[in-house]
Design a protein that fits this description.
single chain; three-stranded antiparallel beta sheet; alpha/beta
Length: about 200
């Protein structure tokens, strides 16, 4: 199992945001997480990505931090840098082999090649989301944790992401939270609905 949870819960002070999650996700599995706003989807994904620690139960994630690709609500890119500079920086941090070729391939795949020298501050929210997806995929992670990945994407951007998910499904392990479950359900090997 890449992810195993038993009685997993998270509190912030007196506030419980997640409780009693049971989960077994094998290598190559595709977990779709659904639930109302406030049900703990983002918290669960942050736990799986190693960005938060549980306060209840047990969680085992069999993937080193460097093998996790995380897409958050915030795009986690530098607005004052260009798309190329952002990915070059992340590529160096993750020691991506042949990073220039990989960066070029991702920028082209997500329709950002022509805008690669523009500062991210000039990007639309949808373009910024496309760049955030490039960042999450850059180091070819074994575990992809994607929080509402279709947010702000236009029809073309969503179709590009659909194609990327289909290509990687089965080869990589996925944890994806979404309000649009029908879009990714054909890829899902596992589903988890969190109660509010």
């Amino acid at each position: 199992m890449v992810i195993r949870a038993r009685g997993l819960g998270k509190r912030y002070g007196e506030k419980r945001v997640l409780a009693g999650v049971e989960l077994d996700l094998p290598r190559g599995g595709f977990l779709v997480v659904t639930g109302a706003n406030g049900s703990g989807k983002t918290t669960l994904l942050r736990l799986c990505a190693g960005l938060a620690v549980p306060t209840e139960g047990e969680l085992t994630v069999d993937a080193p931090r460097a093998a996790v690709g995380f897409l958050a609500h915030e795009p986690l890119v530098y607005r004052e840098l260009t798309a190329l500079e952002n990915l070059e920086l992340y590529g160096r941090l993750y020691r991506v082999p042949e990073r220039r070729e990989r960066i070029g391939m991702l920028l082209e795949r997500f329709g950002l090649w022509e805008a690669r020298h523009e500062r991210v501050a000039a990007y639309s929210r949808g373009m910024t989301q496309r760049l955030a997806l490039c960042r999450a995929l850059l180091h070819d992670p074994a575990l992809l944790v994607l929080d509402e990945p279709f947010t702000a994407l236009d029809t073309d951007g969503a179709a590009l992401l659909d194609a990327q998910l289909r290509e990687l499904a089965g080869e990589r392990t996925f944890v994806v939270s979404t309000h649009d479950a029908p879009r990714v359900e054909p890829l899902a090997s596992h589903t988890l609905e969190l109660a509010a």
